[in-house]
């Protein structure tokens, strides 16, 4: 109990569910004063969720949050800020249309009153000078005019700035991803200075040597749980990678086919290693989320579809990952949602052949088992997994020989996943090519060949037996030799 | 090399187009130069400038107000009737209207409604109320309003002084004050404002309330110029105000607005009308020609934006 009393911040047994997905499964995390806690884990480990819990953006469904030994019942964003919890997010969290000074005003609520511009300028300039001495950024410039590295510097300086309430716990979520080596070094040095004066830091990074050098203690998360927690000296690169992966799991379902003789169907000069796909191949795109996989899919799609007019026989088709955003037509029936991509084949002289559309719909409904009494029901009457199946059917019903998949199985139940995997394998056996971006290692292992992305580049190509969790995690994180 | 900030660039084009247009008008009609001439050219710009500022406040939070025209008409009708005959009731009605604007902002945010639909609906409400008040053109402007709009300040005519005053007040409010920063911040990145612990509802309500206030001022000043009102007096203001914001360097989304630019935009739009009359273009063609001027200015801006982007990439 003594530890809880001293902790700047303590989360006890936090559980968070998003629908059927368990994002946090009883996480206990303590941050002591003057400590830098490194937090690592692969996609879906629950890092972002625990960060949201700590900064007050999310209330855990179970478990408790305490600070300075005091259990916080009504904890929210303002309570977190009042206790000096600050956060640097992975994505840009400044207003691009405002100047740096104005953004400082937004970040510090109690800075108002006459002459706030001068005070804000002083605060942010002091912080920028402390963290990145010799930065050369004018605080009057609009954030939108800054380079990405400069923006990130401003965000980091913003988190460490002091306008009345001193920062006590700073959460850094991939803070160095757009900084070059010397700037990253400056930031890490500041983290050490900050912790030396009693401040606490939670540090998330995919660059393992940064974590190992800077942290006092490293917490490894996987599947919404803390799987390892040790002082930083207790870890090395390989130890970390091993802790992030599964220790032992059945190798069932893995494909091992010799494909290298099939003709090439698609190639693309991506950043890093060149990308190529063969006929009938399932190519996986792996790595941490947001490291350039979706961009490659979009580039492939753009390169092989018409700019103005649709092509008669497009080579590629797309299965969207974010159903709500760019997948389903919410007001349409299941049938319409299914047939939209192949209407060209289903119509004559500009008119849709209703009978053929229905036949084809019924055919696919049977083939992939869409669970509905009537294809004319609204698409939203289906469960998420079945909606996703409709999107698959939409893509498979076209004549496109390459199917691009943008992490389509997010939030889909296990049973549906197995059914879709079977369909993919069957279609691949018939010569279709699948290019599959997935954030789930189990899915990546179904692929014949895998490209691992890091920082927008293809960093490694794994084939056959090399496709396993350890290799994928090792190449996803920087600073590990494969 | 001296580099213009992107805000200054944003202002340069509207200022340039206004100067060009003004030069062309003076060249064609030398008698327009001078105190009286300038006042005549610009006095109708005052209500448009106020309505443009109102629209700009709504656009700063990524929304759009399609009820601006009917709302200004409604205010004009209230001004020409209640505000003259029963000032206390008139003030109450106008305050209620501003309150309704703020409430609309709250509802749009809480229910996550598209502002276009909500304000389009409100436009019928305001239009109906205006017709109830003044079924036929009539009413009379209160004397103080009439005096205010015809006052002859020394040095510069009323229209110019008023435009400068509107631009300065709006600039202070939107660009310099904390509230203005907050409102523009919502347009730029609502999530980050939320994460800093601000109440988005309150900020949106104040943006809409302020917009209502400026629109009320637009209606009052319009009646001061025309002396009487009519339920359809300001229907054009919806599109004029949007065009004014865009001409002045504002954008539909992203919280990028410029109050000084918006006033300049309103002046440009008013002047474009006079310019076309001086060209002896028949009124039938004037609207089309006004559209052409708009397209030219916007094309210019797109081109400059592209140049800027290319430079940044390098």
UniProtKB/TrEMBL annotation, chain A:
Q: PROSITE patterns, per this entry?
A: ABC_TRANSPORTER_1, ABC_TRANSPORTER_2
The record ties this protein, via InterPro entries, to: AAA+_ATPase, ABC_carbohydrate_import_ATPase, ABC_transporter-like_ATP-bd, ABC_transporter-like_CS, P-loop_NTPase
Q: Does the keyword Membrane apply?
A: yes
Pinpoint the ABC transporter domain residues: 8-248, 254-480
Q: Which GO terms describe its molecular function?
A: ATP binding
* Top-level taxon of origin: Bacteria
Renumbered to this chain, the signal peptide range is none
Pfam families the UniProt entry points to:
ABC_tran
**Alphabetized UniProt keyword annotations:** ATP-binding, Membrane, Nucleotide-binding, Repeat, Sugar transport, Transport
Q: Is Chaperone included in the keywords of this UniProt record?
A: no
Instruction: State the similarity comment.
Output: Belongs to the ABC transporter superfamily.
Q: What is this protein called?
A: Sugar ABC transporter ATP-binding protein
Task: Provide the species name.
Answer: Rhizobium herbae
Phylogenetic classification of the source organism: Bacteria, Pseudomonadati, Pseudomonadota, Alphaproteobacteria, Hyphomicrobiales
């Amino acid at each position: 109990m003594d530890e809880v009393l001293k902790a700047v911040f303590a989360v006890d047994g936090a559980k968070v569910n998003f629908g059927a997905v368990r994002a946090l499964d009883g996480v206990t995390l303590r941050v002591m004063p003057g400590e830098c806690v490194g937090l690592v884990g692969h996609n879906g480990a629950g890092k972002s969720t625990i960060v949201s819990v700590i900064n007050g953006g999310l209330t855990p469904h179970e478990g408790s949050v305490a600070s300075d030994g005091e259990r916080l019942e009504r904890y929210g964003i303002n309570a977190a800020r009042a206790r000096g919890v600050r956060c640097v997010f992975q994505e840009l969290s400044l207003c691009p249309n405002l100047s740096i000074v104005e953004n400082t005003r937004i970040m510090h609520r109690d800075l108002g009153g006459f002459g706030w511009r001068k005070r804000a300028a002083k605060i942010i300039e002091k912080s920028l000078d402390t963290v990145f001495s010799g930065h050369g950024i004018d605080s009057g410039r609009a954030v939108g005019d800054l380079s990405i590295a400069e923006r990130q510097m401003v965000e980091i300086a913003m988190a460490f700035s002091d306008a009345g309430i001193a920062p006590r716990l700073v959460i850094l979520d991939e803070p160095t991803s757009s900084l070059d080596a010397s700037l990253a070094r400056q930031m890490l040095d500041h983290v050490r200075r900050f912790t030396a004066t009693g401040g606490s830091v939670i540090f998330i990074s995919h660059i393992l040597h940064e974590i190992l050098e800077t942290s006092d203690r490293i917490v490894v998360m996987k599947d919404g749980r803390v799987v390892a927690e040790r002082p930083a000296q207790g870890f090395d690169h390989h130890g970390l990678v091993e802790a992030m992966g599964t220790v032992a799991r059945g190798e069932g379902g893995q494909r091992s086919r010799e494909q290298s003789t099939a003709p090439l169907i698609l190639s693309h000069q991506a950043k890093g290693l060149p990308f190529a796909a063969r006929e009938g191949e399932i190519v996986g795109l792996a790595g941490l989320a947001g490291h350039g996989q979706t961009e490659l899919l979009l580039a492939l799609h753009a390169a092989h579809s018409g700019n103005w007019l649709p092509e008669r026989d497009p080579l590629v088709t797309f299965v969207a990952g974010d159903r709500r955003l760019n997948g389903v037509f919410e007001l349409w029936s299941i049938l319409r949602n299914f047939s939209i991509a192949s209407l060209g084949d289903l119509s004559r002289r500009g008119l849709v052949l209703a009978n053929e559309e229905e036949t084809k719909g019924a055919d696919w409904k049977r083939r992939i088992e869409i669970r509905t009494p009537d294809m004319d029901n609204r698409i939203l009457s289906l469960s998420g997994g079945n909606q996703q199946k409709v999107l698959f059917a939409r893509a498979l019903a076209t004549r496109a020989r390459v199917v691009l998949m943008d992490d389509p199985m997010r939030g889909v139940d296990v049973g549906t996943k197995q059914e879709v995997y079977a369909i993919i394998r069957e279609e691949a056996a018939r010569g279709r090519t699948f290019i599959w971006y997935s954030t789930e290692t189990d899915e990546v292992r179904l692929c014949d060949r895998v490209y691992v992305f890091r920082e927008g580049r293809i960093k490694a190509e794994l084939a056959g037996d090399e496709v396993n969790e350890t290799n994928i995690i090792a190449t996803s994180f920087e600073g590990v030799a494969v | 090399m001296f580099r213009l900030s992107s805000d200054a660039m944003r202002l340069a084009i509207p200022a340039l187009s206004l100067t060009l247009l003004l030069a062309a008008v003076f060249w064609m009609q030398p008698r327009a130069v001078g105190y009286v001439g300038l006042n005549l050219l610009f006095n109708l710009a005052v209500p448009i400038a106020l309505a443009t500022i109102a629209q700009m406040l709504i656009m700063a939070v990524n929304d759009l107000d399609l009820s601006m025209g009917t709302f200004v008409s409604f205010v004009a009708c209230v001004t020409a009737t209640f505000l003259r005959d029963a000032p206390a009731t008139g003030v109450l009605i106008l305050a209620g209207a501003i309150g309704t604007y703020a409430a609309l902002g709250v509802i749009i945010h809480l229910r996550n409604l598209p502002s276009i639909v909500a304000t389009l609906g409100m436009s019928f409400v305001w239009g109906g109320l205006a017709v109830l008040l003044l079924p036929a053109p009539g009413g009379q402007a209160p004397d103080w309003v009439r005096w205010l709009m015809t006052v002859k300040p020394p040095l510069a005519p009323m229209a110019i002084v008023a435009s400068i005053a509107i631009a300065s007040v709006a600039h202070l409010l939107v660009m310099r004050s904390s509230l203005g920063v907050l409102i523009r911040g919502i347009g730029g990145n609502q999530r980050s404002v939320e994460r800093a612990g601000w109440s988005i509802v309150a900020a949106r309500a104040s943006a809409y309330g302020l917009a209502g206030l400026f629109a009320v001022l637009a209606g009052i000043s319009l009646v001061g110029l025309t002396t009487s009102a009519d339920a359809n007096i300001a229907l054009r203001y919806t599109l004029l105000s949007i065009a004014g914001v865009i001409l002045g360097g504002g954008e539909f989304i992203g919280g990028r607005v410029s109050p000084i630019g918006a006033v300049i935009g309103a002046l440009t739009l008013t002047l474009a009308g006079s310019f076309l009359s001086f060209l002896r273009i028949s009124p039938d063609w004037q609207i089309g020609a006004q559209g052409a001027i708009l397209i030219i200015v916007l094309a210019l801006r797109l081109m400059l934006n592209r140049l800027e982007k290319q430079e940044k990439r390098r």
